[in-house]
């Protein structure tokens, strides 16, 4: 089930980032009382009344402003709206309805998406005279809120979740391996899929961002069923020198949410960039199996140390993903492309592997004997037992005497012991510590 996406849009300085931070429960967006401060979309996973969704904070929209940064923000907001299941259109209750608000409303109507009209900065239930001007937008009942003091946020969240699509299940069978091909624009995502399929099923171009939407391509190979999710770049609609890389992140995020395995493509000419780290981080945090694929390897001049040094650099740059195998390929010359599906099937199996409770506890007992758990003020960590509670990704719960004693370093040690014995190559594994409840006498 893909999580619904909710985009918060509006002109600059109406309080989108303050609202976002309040709902996300932490300060993520930069908030400053100056238009245009929130430059990039920010994402957070949110849950309300057992409804999980992804909330997107966008830069403010100024439809007719030619400033490059503001134009980029407008484009990012348009992309967020294009991808969102529900749009929260935020207005400023203190300044009232503006011409810019009316222009944004025109853009939103064309999306034909469910829209929740929100009037922020209403600090009490007493509404100002110009509040009723917002009805003239013809977009339904405006909801008055205050992001700062939390007024009516529960009512707003109720309205948001009520507009979620009823069925977000894509209908693929359980045995189908869903593969997201992710990475910044122009790294060769579409070319790789075309090479693997042996036919031009996806548009290929040298211009960054020519694939409009994520394209699903189901196919079979050696009796195994796959679906490739090609994450799109965005076609430029203006001559503004936009940073197209920023626009790929949302597409990557939605594709990652729907996938089992992520192919993280890196351009061999550029190495690991900050954008690559960010996209790889989303795959890691989402708990997806991952393969790091270095494309355009044919363009690199090599000596005896090139492969070793390149691999070392990737491991340093993506140190949080040391479990992910690295494959050097060239979509153009088809070098090692035949290995990709072999790797995909392998890491998908690792991603869904289970360890019996008995075998896991034998491993934990041995690990504890080899390296005694930490202690604090005379109290030592005790791991009573462990169990695997789920797969995709493999998730383990360790029942302990005191979670405060379960230091990160020791839990990482247990994880390493699990990997040494069972490999789990290509997938993150999650270990949680819980205190064992004492029986009442």
TrEMBL record:
GTP 2 binds at residues 183-190, 230-234, 295-298. This is GTPase Der. NCBIfam families: GTPase_EngA, small_GTP. GTPase that plays an essential role in the late steps of ribosome biogenesis. Keywords: GTP-binding, Nucleotide-binding, Repeat, Ribosome biogenesis. It holds the Pfam family MMR_HSR1. HAMAP family: GTPase_Der. It comes from the Bacteria. Belongs to the TRAFAC class TrmE-Era-EngA-EngB-Septin-like GTPase superfamily. EngA (Der) GTPase family. Residues 4-168, 177-352 form the EngA-type G domain. GO terms for molecular function: GTP binding; ribosome binding. Associates with the 50S ribosomal subunit. The lineage of its organism: Bacteria, Bacillati, Bacillota, Clostridia, Peptostreptococcales. GTP 1 binds at residues 10-17, 57-61, 120-123.
């Amino acid at each position: 089930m893909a999580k619904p996406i909710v985009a918060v849009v509006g002109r600059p300085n109406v309080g989108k980032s303050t609202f976002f931070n309040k709902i996300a429960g932490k300060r993520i967006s930069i908030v400053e009382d100056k238009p245009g401060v929130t430059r990039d979309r920010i994402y957070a996973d949110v849950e309300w009344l057992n409804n999980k969704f992804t909330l997107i904070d966008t830069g403010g929209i100024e439809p007719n402003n030619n400033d490059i940064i503001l134009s980029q923000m407008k484009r990012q907001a348009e992309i967020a709206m294009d991808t969102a299941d529900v749009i929260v259109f935020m207005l400023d209750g203190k300044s009232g309805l503006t011409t810019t608000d009316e222009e944004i409303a025109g853009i939103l109507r064309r999306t034909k998406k469910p829209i929740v009209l929100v009037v922020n900065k209403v600090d009490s239930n007493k509404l100002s005279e110009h509040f009723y001007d917002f009805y003239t937008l013809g977009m339904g009942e405006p909801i008055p809120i205050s992001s700062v003091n939390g007024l009516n946020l529960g009512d707003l969240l109720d309205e948001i979740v009520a507009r979620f699509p009823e069925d977000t299940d894509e209908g693929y069978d359980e045995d189908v391996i869903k593969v997201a091909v992710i990475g910044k624009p122009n790294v060769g995502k579409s070319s790789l899929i075309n090479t693997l399929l042996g036919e031009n099923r996806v548009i290929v171009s040298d211009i960054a961002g020519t694939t409009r939407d994520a394209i699903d391509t189901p196919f079979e190979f050696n009796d195994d069923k796959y679906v490739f999710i090609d994450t799109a770049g965005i076609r430029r609609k203006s001559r503004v020198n936009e940073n197209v890389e920023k626009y790929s992140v949302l597409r990557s995020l939605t594709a990652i949410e729907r996938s089992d395995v992520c192919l993280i493509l890196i351009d061999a000419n550029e190495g690991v960039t900050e954008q690559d780290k960010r996209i790889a981080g989303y795959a890691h945090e989402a708990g997806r199996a991952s393969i790091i694929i270095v494309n355009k390897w044919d363009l690199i001049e090599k000596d005896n140390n090139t492969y070793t040094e390149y691999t070392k650099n990737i491991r340093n740059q993506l140190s949080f993903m040391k479990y992910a195998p690295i494959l050097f390929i060239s979509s153009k010359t088809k070098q090692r492309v035949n290995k990709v599906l072999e790797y995909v099937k392998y890491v998908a199996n690792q991603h869904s592997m289970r360890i019996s409770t008995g075998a896991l506890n034998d491993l934990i007992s041995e690990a504890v004997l080899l390296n005694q758990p930490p202690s604090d003020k005379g109290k030592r960590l005790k791991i009573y037992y462990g169990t695997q509670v789920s797969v995709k990704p493999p998730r383990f719960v360790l029942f302990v005497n005191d979670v405060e004693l379960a230091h990160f370093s020791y839990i990482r040690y247990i994880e390493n012991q699990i990997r040494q014995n069972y490999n789990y190559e290509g997938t993150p594994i999650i270990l949680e510590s819980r205190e064992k409840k004492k029986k009442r006498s």
